[in-house]
């Protein structure tokens, strides 16, 4: 754009470049998804299609922003971990957050019919977002452990809560009162003794959330080639074993060859993957670049 006497207004913009050599985490969270679930009649306590849609949106984000090496999602939220040495948008916080958030939210609307062809999207969903920096590997691991611990606590609570409401016809207030002060062991006992549900047999995605990572895999015929894809994992991140098996995350090294059985993952990915693209981030802002319902307190 040609210089003009009005260009001085750019000096009012704040420099929001993120500190170098720190982990960048962008966390998105659905705004008022309790109402969204009710309006769209999502299954309680977990709607598999809604979770798969969230995973789809996160996969699209990872395919666009190649410096994200791990994403973790549960319920109506997703966290995206950018490499410590990421240079995307000159590490400008506002650019990173707004681009990730807008791509995720637009993907949610764009792919809605792929997962919910039997119902109309009543209104556009909204996601709030934040950028958080973690200076050490330990800080990053503790953050991800915190988010996964949230799944363990909330999903057990929600599963028990909605069984009491849906199967025993308790009101929400009555179910809340029944569970007030109970420990995990009490909730497990309620599920097993009153509803014949072994919580450990519930779908692993519900209990542990979804981890998305880039891996190099051999695609079965007729393609028959090795490709880099975003693979879903449903496992604990608490132990050192996970980080040793996926050492490229903290090491910020190249994409690791995945030698495990990919048949189930490829099947799960059949509705999640699209052709990978890479983002070309401008150095400056030139304008050209580019079940939720209840949580236990």
What can you tell me about this protein's structure?
With 297 residues, the chain is α+β, with helices and mostly antiparallel strands. It has 2 domains: 184 residues, Alpha-Beta Plaits (2-Layer Sandwich); 64 residues, no CATH class. 40% of the residues lie in helices and 16% in strands. The protein contains 11 helices and 7 strands. Strands 1, 2, 3, 4, 5, 6 and 7 form a 7-stranded mixed sheet that branches. Helix 2 packs across helix 3 and helix 5 runs parallel beside helix 7. The longest helix has 31 residues. It is globular. The C terminus is likely disordered. It comes from Frankliniella occidentalis. Its cofactor is Mg(2+). Homotetramer. Interacts with MFN1 and MFN2; functions as a guanyl-nucleotide exchange factor/GEF for MFN2 and also probably MFN1.
Give a quick precis of the structure.
Mg(2+) 1 binds at residues 29-30, 76. This protein is of the alpha+beta class and 297 residues long.
Distance between the termini: 52 Å
**Number of DSSP strands?**
7
CATH-defined fold name of the largest domain:
Alpha-Beta Plaits
Overall body shape: globular
Structural class: alpha+beta
Treating each run of at least 4 consecutive H or I residues as one helix, how many helices? 11
In the CATH hierarchy, what is the architecture of the largest domain at level 2? 2-Layer Sandwich
Please give the CATH class of the largest domain: Alpha Beta
**Biggest β-sheet strands, sense, barrel:** 7 strands, mixed
Sequence of secondary-structure elements? EHHEEHHEHHHHEEHHEH
In angstroms, what is the radius of gyration? 21 Å
List low-confidence stretches: 273-297
**Number of domains in the coordinates?**
2
Q: Please report which band the strand proportion falls in: under 5%, 5-15%, 15-25%, 25-35%, 35-45% or over 45%.
A: 15-25%
Question: Taking all residues together, what is the mean pLDDT?
Answer: 88
Helix content: 40-55%
- The fourth-level CATH homologous superfamily of the largest domain is tRNA(His) guanylyltransferase (Thg1)
């Amino acid at each position: 754009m040609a210089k003009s006497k009005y260009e001085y207004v750019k000096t009012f913009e704040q420099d929001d470049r993120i500190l170098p050599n720190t982990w960048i985490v962008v966390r998105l969270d659905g705004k008022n998804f309790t109402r969204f679930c009710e309006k769209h009649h999502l299954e309680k306590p977990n709607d598999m299609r809604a979770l798969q849609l969230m995973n789809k949106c996160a996969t699209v984000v990872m395919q666009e922003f190649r410096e994200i090496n791990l994403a973790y999602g549960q319920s109506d939220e997703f966290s995206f971990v950018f490499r410590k040495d990421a240079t995307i948008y000159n590490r400008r916080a506002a650019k990173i957050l707004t681009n990730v958030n807008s791509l995720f939210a637009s993907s949610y609307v764009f792919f809605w019919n792929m997962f919910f062809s039997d119902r109309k999207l009543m209104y556009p969903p909204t996601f709030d977002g934040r950028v958080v920096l973690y200076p050490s590997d330990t800080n990053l691991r503790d953050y991800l452990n915190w988010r996964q611990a949230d799944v363990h606590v909330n999903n057990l609570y929600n599963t028990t809560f909605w069984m009491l409401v849906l199967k025993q016809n308790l009101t929400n207030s009555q179910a809340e009162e029944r569970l007030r002060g109970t420990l995990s062991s009490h909730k497990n006992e309620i599920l097993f003794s009153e509803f014949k549900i072994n919580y450990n047999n519930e779908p692993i995605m519900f209990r542990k959330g979804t981890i998305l990572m880039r891996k190099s895999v051999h695609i079965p015929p007729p393609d028959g080639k090795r490709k880099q894809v975003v693979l879903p994992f449903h496992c604990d991140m608490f132990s050192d074993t996970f980080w040793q098996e996926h050492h490229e995350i903290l090491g910020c090294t190249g994409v690791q060859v995945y030698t495990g059985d990919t048949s189930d993952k490829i099947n799960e990915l059949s509705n999640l993957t699209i052709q990978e693209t890479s983002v070309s981030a401008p150095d400056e802002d030139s304008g050209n670049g580019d079940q939720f319902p209840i949580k236990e307190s």
